[in-house]
Each structure stands twice: as C-alpha cells, then as structure tokens.
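Blackboard transcription, Thursday session:
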Amino acid sequence: MKVLVPVKRVIDYNVKVRVKADGSGVDLANVKMSMNPFDEIAVEEAIRLKEKGVADEVVAVSIGVKQSQETLRTALAMGADRAILVIAADDVHQDIEPLAVAKILKAVIDEEAPGLVIAGKQAIDNDMNATGQMLSALLGWSQATFASEVNVDGDSAVVTREVDGGLQTIKVKMPAIITADLRLNEPRYASLPNIMKAKKKPLDEKTAADYGVDVSPRLSVVKTTEPAERAAGIKVGSVDELVAKLKAEVL
Amino acid sequence: MAVLLLAEVMGDDLSVDSTAKALTAAAQLGDVTVLVAGGNAAAAAAEAAKLTGASAVIAVSDASLANGLAEPLAALVVSMAGDFEHIVAPSTATGKNVMPRVAALLDVMVISDVMTIVDGDTFERPIYAGNAIQTVKSADAKKVMTIRTAGFDAAGEGGSAAVSDGAAADNPGLSEWVEDKVEESDRPDLTSAKIVVSGGRGVGSEENFAIIEKLADKLGAAVGASRAAVDSGYAPNDWQVGQTGKVVAPELYIAVGISGAIQHLAGMKDSKIIVAINKDEEAPIFQVADYGLVADLFDAVPELEGKLG
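(Written on the board underneath:)
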C-alpha cells in the first residue's frame, strides 16, 4: 500500500509571530521556517506503517512556494521514499487556502492512487483545521480526524480520535483520510546520514496549473492585527499576598 | 437572511452551552433554524427550541447520526443547505470534523473559529494560535463556518420555536462507530476547566509533578504542562498547553516553573487571570501574568496549597 502525506512549510513553532505594521499580514521574511508540527507526526506515522510492513511506499507532497522543497527534504530525511512539490505561490506570504490545497491533492491522488492519506490535523499558521476533511469530501473517502491511534487492518482501519472530553474509536473503510493529532506519536529526528541520503531521493516538481486547479482565494484578508494586549500585572511579595488577591478576585 | 445552525449533540442530549453560544453568534447573521441530529433527536430538539433566538428547530433522528460521524452528518447538512446563506456550528470536535467537509461538498471555503462577526460576509478569526487576528471577507455565496464559543455569551432560555421533523440523507456508509471513552479522571477536562494549574521544566521531574497535581486537586482544577515539561517526560502529552497542545482560556491559570516560551503563551494567554510562580524574575511569563510571585516553587506551591480553601 502506498501512503501519501501532505506537508506544509510554516513559521517555526518557536518563532515569535510579528504582525506587519501595515496590517497586511504576518511578517515571514527572514524568519525560520519548519515543517508544520502536526505534519511531522503524520510523516512519522506513515514511516512506522512502512516499518511494520503495512505500507510499501511513503510519498510526501507539499503545496506552496518553491522553498517548500526544504520541507520535503526533511520528510525524505525522516524516511519518506519520494516527494512531489506543487508550486502554487511565488510569495511566501500567499497562503493557499485548504479548499485549493484539497483540490490539488485530489488531482495528485488521482494519479498516485494511494491506499491511505495521513495529514496533520491543522497547520499552525492559518489554524484552519480543514484540509483533510475537505480532501476526504472531494474524494468521497472516509475521514478519521484528530487521530491518536491508527491500526490498519486490510480494507479498513480502526482509528482512535481525540474528541471533546475523551476518545472516540471509529472503523473507516479504506482508502481513508486520517488527520494526526499530537498524541499519535513522537516524530523522530533525521540523522545526518539520512539527511545526506535524502538529497538523492526523487523530488518531482509540478505547478498548480499542471493539475488545472485555480488557487485564487475565496477569502480575502481585509486586515491582520495584533491581539489585544494584556494589561500589565503586578508582582506580589508573598504567598499570603497572592492568596488574598486570588480570594478577592476569583476563588 | 437565513442561518442554519448545527446544534452540538452528545449521545441524545443537547450540549446547551456550546449550542447556545453559537446561537448568539448565528442570530447576528439572521433568522436561525437549529438543526438537531442524533440517534433520537427529540429531547435535544425540545431543549434547543427553548433557546432565545431560535426561529425554528428541525429534528432529525437516524441511527447513522447517533455518534456524530462526519460523513452522514455532513451529507445531512448539505441536503438542507439550499435555503440558507450561512451554515454555522460551534467550534467543537464535531463541528471541526464536519463543517470543512460540508464546505468542500458545497465548493466553498470554511471559515474556522470565528470570534467576531463584522457583517454577513466579514469575520474575525485567530491565526497563529491567537498571536494574530485576521479579518477575512468571503466571496462565496454560502458561508460555512465554525464559531469560537469563548467569544460569545450563551443565548438564554426564553424561546418557544416550533419543532419539525426532517429526514436523514443517504448514509455513504464509509465509517462506523466502535466506542466512546469519556475520560475517567476526577479532574475537569483541560479545555473546559475553570481553573488550570500547569507545571513547566522548573518542576524538575515526573515525581515532583505531584505538587502541581495536589494544588490542582485542592482547587478542583485541571492539570496542564508546558511543552518543555512534556518533552522532558515529566508530564503526559495530553496535558500539554500551547500552540501544538491544547489552547485553554480558564478563569484562573496558574503557571508554575514555566518560563513562558512563545509556544506556551499561545495556548493560555486568553485566560482571565494568570498567576505565575517562578524563581527567575526575568522569565517572560511575568509579562503576561496578572500576579507574579518570584519564589522557589517547592516552597511556594505547598504553602499556597495549604493556605487556599
């Protein structure tokens, strides 16, 4: 079985986000970019399926600017077999909406015919939490979002999902779209030899136009602002003072 | 303008809080019809009909809708979408699971986690885990969106909307429910707790986390942890508060031995009152704390626990 894993290049989770003064968006020039953390978990899960003999090939796909090939090289260094880059934007500030991403992925899947897609549950930049669900809708496949455990068994998969207040286990027909939550696994670090090897693994380059997908956004960004600042607090001198404040205000 | 609100249903019960908050948002857009879907939706529909601001309630009972599975629920919403310009749901696990699927089936973009409704086409939503707020204007004919319930007050119970029965759509039969496991902790759920006590790397070990848990239990609070504490193995993954963990906004958040890395702040800075206890007075957590105590946590936390309650 072939497993396809979409990965997104986003601002590194440890970088402080700065809103541009003109309100046009978040400044992404000269900041550290990394693979979306949830996508790392998805890549790891796909590689583990291959190591278990459930999958025989892991294909990583990224859609965005040309520099996303760095993110794909990371996936290859972790253990993906090959990669497909779909260039859909020239400017790093142009985010491709989940609907357009899902349409491109559908076109890739029509060609690649994987038996399973594992995606991150959301990207930490636009926080949409939508691509997996949308892709599943467009393909007419089953969907198992927010997965914390995945067991593939022949023509179905049993997936435990993180839902409000607990866990839900469902059984989905294959082919399926699974989206990875935080608890699914702990992604490995790529070793130096594997990083070197990844440079020689195949990476195909395509464009959104190759797949005939219009990526023009449905949502126009009117403005981007800083969230309201918290009013400055105070330092208390002792536990007693803290207890008095808390009793007066909340407890 | 007509709005369809997908009510949040757990088992056969209406989740009143999230539904009532999403209803407040929906009512700003127009006349609201509440869709209540479940294995047996009658009781939940009767509850929904009492909510102020609901103009009509449609109850749909079908075995395929009993467990909130995305495919049959999305098919139902799409089958009813015709008359409505806005289709909304609270931003719960179910809403997040179903609404993007609905949007794609209608060939429109989903607008996730709406926190403010500017007008019928324009909405504010948090991006980068709330580190920036984006105002977006939709060009789609139908707006499919989820509502960040923390941003809206719950609608009251003074209504008496008419309830009618609707029919389920064809179940695509792609998935089946196996089981639900509700967390059996005596502690409240991290994301809905009124008080959260979190520990960071400063706590030092898994054993030492007991003092965090003890304080939490005294306060009836949920226990959280920073990514640094989770990565160090002091606390389990599902306690993680932060950009890649859970985003919480309790009445009171007590951060213990947490320096305040950006990734952690992103997950808790909307809390009403933040208390920080840290021995490093330069720790960035103090910049967002309402009350900061520079102290050794191993002295301060047991003392605090002893003096509270």
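Lecturer's comment: The helical segments of chain B are 16-27, 42-49, 70-80, 93-105, 209-219, 227-231, 262-268, 297-307.
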